[in-house]
Specification:
This protein folds into 2 domains: 6-116 and 243-313, FAD/NAD(P)-binding domain (3-Layer(bba) Sandwich), CATH 3.50.50.60; 119-239, FAD/NAD(P)-binding domain (3-Layer(bba) Sandwich), CATH 3.50.50. The protein is built from 6 helices and 19 strands. The chain has helices at 16-27, 61-73, 137-140, 156-168, 185-193, 289-313; strands at residues 6-12, 32-35, 49-50, 59-60, 78-80, 84-88, 94-98, 103-111, 115-117, 133-134, 148-152, 171-175, 197-200, 203-211, 215-223, 229-233, 236-239, 243-245, 275-277. The strands form 5 sheets. Strands 1, 2, 5, 6, 7, 8 and 19 form a 7-stranded mixed beta sheet that branches. It has a 5-stranded parallel beta sheet with strand order 10-17-11-12-13, covered by helices on one side. The structure holds NADP nicotinamide-adenine-dinucleotide phosphate.
Length: 315
């Protein structure tokens, strides 16, 4: 890599979407670089078990991430482990600015920055992060062995992680704001059958209670139907209330929906020619590893045609 080096494609993000894009871009003989600021695999890397990636019935998320990375590297994909601070669209080329001031240029950019766990935004949440408040059961569950914990949310992540925590803790309160889970039927069936999970429907957390030194010691809950307020004792609270796209690097002028997801066409291309968005950053029906990988493939194949056309018209 050198200042103003020209690539065919720059991929921002090393989760399943970005790594698949890297693999397909290299297979299409594109001069490609992938930039990742943190852990390869993104959300996949912090998922305990992946049971729904076709062809692999059961694998740890971290292990699957390593396989994605190894596979992409087997095509000699260039990787830069640095933070991107800006994506700047251009007429001739698009530019990507790194935190150290380096500017890279490319015909096409694939935005694969994923998303981040959403917060509850209630009193006690920020203050107790790491002191009982967690957003990752597989990372922190171990610290709550034989203790009482609470899980907040009703989607796949909440159900899956409540099941995981039920195996290692004394008891799990599963708190959901409606009387019906959003998560898949198969996970719901497992949750209903797990005696260690105590489901609390129609309730929201209004405060995370804590002791200055020991951290979280309970939750204040509010019934969404009756407005009744009560407290439960717990030493840990795992919050899984969804996800926000990491759209900070999406250039102004690129269309997003009302919740911040990038709108693309079927090629994963945005309204700016040569700028693609893939994986959890893009508006689509569902967020799954297999869909993120498929997006990476689609965008890389479409970018290959785009780059070829640019080179023919602008030698
Ligand atoms: P999600 O499906 O968006 O679910 C978020 C849950 O949090 C919903 O039940 C929502 O309630 C609740 N919620 C949102 N804001 C809240 C608030 N302020 N207070 C209380 N509750 C709140 O998010 P996710 O579970 O993280 O899943 C994200 C995507 O990844 C989904 O597409 C999911 O299918 C996928 N995923 C798949 C797997 C798997 O297949 N193994 C595992 C994990 C995730 P409402 O239902 O009332 O809106």
């Amino acid at each position: 890599m050198s200042e103003n080096e020209l690539y065919d494609v720059i991929i921002i993000g090393g989760g399943p979407a970005g790594l698949s894009a890297g693999m397909y871009a290299k297979r299409a003989a594109l001069k490609t670089v992938l930039i990742e600021r943190g852990v390869f695999g993104g959300q996949m890397a912090i998922t305990k078990e992946v049971e729904n990636y076709p062809g692999i019935p059961d694998i740890g998320g971290f292990e699957l991430s390593e396989k994605f990375l190894e596979h992409a590297k087997s095509y000699d994909l260039e990787i830069i482990e640095k933070e991107v601070v800006a994506t700047e669209p251009g007429i001739e080329y698009h530019s990507v600015r790194l935190g150290d001031g380096t500017v890279l240029q490319a015909h096409a950019i694939i935005l694969a920055a994923g998303g981040t766990a959403r917060k509850l935004d209630v009193p006690g949440e920020n203050e107790n992060f790491g002191k009982g408040v967690s957003y990752c059961a597989t990372c922190d569950g171990f610290f709550f062995r034989d203790k009482i914990v609470a899980v907040v949310g009703g989607g796949d992540t909440a159900l899956e992680d409540a099941l995981y925590l039920a195996k290692i803790t004394k008891k799990v309160y599963l708190i959901h704001r409606r009387d019906e889970f959003r998560g898949s039927r198969i996970l719901q069936q497992r949750v209903f059958a797990e005696p260690n999970i105590d489901i609390i429907f129609n309730a929201v957390v209004s405060e995370i209670n804590s002791d200055l030194l020991a951290g979280v010691n309970g939750l204040t809950l509010k019934n969404t139907q009756t407005e009744e307020i009560w407290q439960i004792e717990t030493e840990g609270v795992f919050i899984f209330v969804g996800f926000s796209p990491n759209n900070q690097l999406v250039p102004a002028g690129i269309k997003k929906n009302s919740t911040g997801y990038v709108i693309t066409d079927e090629k994963c291309e945005t309204n700016m020619p040569g700028i693609f968005a893939v994986g959890d950053l893009r508006q689509k029906y569902a967020n799954q590893i297999v869909l993120a990988a498929a997006d990476g493939c689609t965008a890389a194949l479409a970018a290959a045609i785009y780059v070829e056309t640019r080179k023919v018209t602008k030698p």
